[in-house]
Amino acid sequence: LQRLNTIGGEKWVNVGDWIQWAVEIPANGWYYIVPRSKQAIYEGMYTSRELRIDGEVPFAEASSLRFNYSDTFRTDPLNDGKTNFMFYLTKGKHEIELRVVLGDMAQVLRIVDNVMVEVNKIYMKILMLTGPAPDEYRDYKFASQLPDVLEAMKKQSNILKNIYQKLEEITGSAGSHSVTLNKVQFLLERMYKDEDIIAANFSTLKDYISSLGTWISETSNQPLEVDYIEFAPVGNELPKAESNFFGNFFHEIKSFVASFYTDYNNLGAKELEDGKEYQSITVWISTGRDQAQIIRSMIKDEFTTQHEIAVNLELVAGGALLPSTLAGIGPDVALSIGSGTIINYAIRSAVVPITGLSEFDETTKRFHATAMVPLTLYGESYALPETQLFSMIFYRKDIFSELDLTVPETWDDLYDIIPIFENNHLDMGFAHSYTMFMYQQEERLYKGELKLSDEVIKALEDNGYKADDIHLTSGMKINLDSNVALAGWKKMCELFTMYGFPVTFNFANRFKTGEMPLAMTSYSAYGQLTIFAPEIRGLWEFTLVPGTMDEETGIVNHDIASGVTGVMMMKGAVDHGNVEPAWTFMKWWTDTDAQARYGNELLALLGASGRHDTANLDALARQPWPASDYNSLREQFQHLAATPELPGGYIIGRYTNFAFLAAYNDNEVPTEALLKYIDAINNELSRKREEFNLPTFQMFEHIEELSFLPYEVKQDPQDYLKGGTGLPSEEKDDTGLSDESKETDTQE
Fold first, then answer.
1. What would the mean pLDDT of 531-543 be, rounded to a whole number?
2. CATH number of 272-388+563-622
């Protein structure tokens, strides 16, 4: 049971959310229902609730109760803003429910939402005429070029003026929250009366549209914080909202003393039940307290009860794992760890391999095949995927409709619409992703293992390996010097050097203003746009990234690389004898039911910004997605590739960035700029491979006819990493971590 000092606040705001109390009424009679409550968010506004007693609304007025703004707690009987309501209650148990509703604000919000849509259209028409930064001293002849825009400004200004006046009548005052409407109305009025100031105030109009969207989003929320509810017999004195001086003084003293005995990091564990002591494991999480509280509740409700394993869940700082592992005091399980960090720890024997544990194959069927690739090194897996992210195309439906365009399916389609965007002063946003062009033609980032021959076997044996170790030769060299890779690299660079795509950009800002109606970015931006850009709600979608068409089959390949975070079992689980309970926890945590519940509770608690990008495919389907968006997401899941994490991979991102900047800033030929760094990349890969006793390409340079097979991401498990046998003994300590453990050894 989690005890809360107060309930609600900014987490009880969405229409339909409800809180229910079970109460005991001492005698039949008439009562005032008096909540000690506070609405301190929206000045000059009120929030609404619907009352239900034993599941029924007692009378019509109880469906639109008002709670006015106050920066302190109040003890007003339930009312509609004019009348305090009395309720006849019988002796005994009753259920009292308060449900979030919009009340009289519903109609106001609908009207303002329509105004925002129309003002956004006004902005886009001006943008396509003037560009994002119009010259205030130039005569754009708005009256003759865009006469419908000026008329629309006048109409929407009058509507906002009427709404502002209506709000003053409803609330009795013009609070700071409603001033936004007045500002937008006044600007529109000035602009339609004097077209010469439109260009000078264009950026202000953009800001005001955002403010209007924020106003709608905030007003749609109905925050209310409740401390307790008292049932006061009619005629009795109502309770006071605030304590006296001595009550406050003793409360502060008790809080101060309690602060010395509270462990704010340890979120608790269930260790005893019915006199039985459970086996206990320690789990660390560093994402946030809200996330940790949800996991804590799930552990107590489900995991410990089902498996009789206690969990000490601890919220720690992000950098705490490395020093604790070095000191031998780390956790049994760590949550939400990046794939690069997992392989860094694994190759230093600080993580327990999980490939041979019970039900491993069955467990991994929960995820897309690519999710396990970055968590696996030469056939041995070291973590289970927790989240999986990849890029998708976000586009503005309204602008594409205005320009009579369709979303590009292939890169050729994309090139066709670039001139149209340029003619209308619009940009596209793309990341510097060259691997996408490689993967769409079945080319891999690393070269595969060597083709077996007598000379190769002899070279392996001369360096202390066996013929069976041939799989360890995969990933010795980078594959960026292949013809397909160089062509993809050139195509990526030309998006920025030839077509003028912006190298850096603020996606959320430029997308919501319409300056960048198409961009490729992580699909996690879905939640960001939902919160950050309510003014374009319903005007955008995301879909597959542009693909490469096979000229022979006509099939379009939309593959793109994905990234994962995982849950891993630390070496401490072996030392503590907790391998089985830790593995049981990992299987439970990544299971469909657990991931679905966690995602839905996080969404309910934090709103759209808390959307959980789970790697469990069935759990992803059980989250609340609009049908069209989920279909696009599911389709892109069918077009994923994966980049393995290998020793020295961190250097690839560093040198490819140097090559890109040389092409972009210094006008070097893109392929020549990249080829200059191939040897440096391969040498760094060899240096790190030597550190971990892996074969390097220099061992085979004397062989004249040396050929590599295509890189395979799935290999048979090997024993060379088990027990730390792949580590130089002089650099190991008790944890298996070397002195260079702070260096990132995998691709950035």
1. 88
2. 3.40.190.10
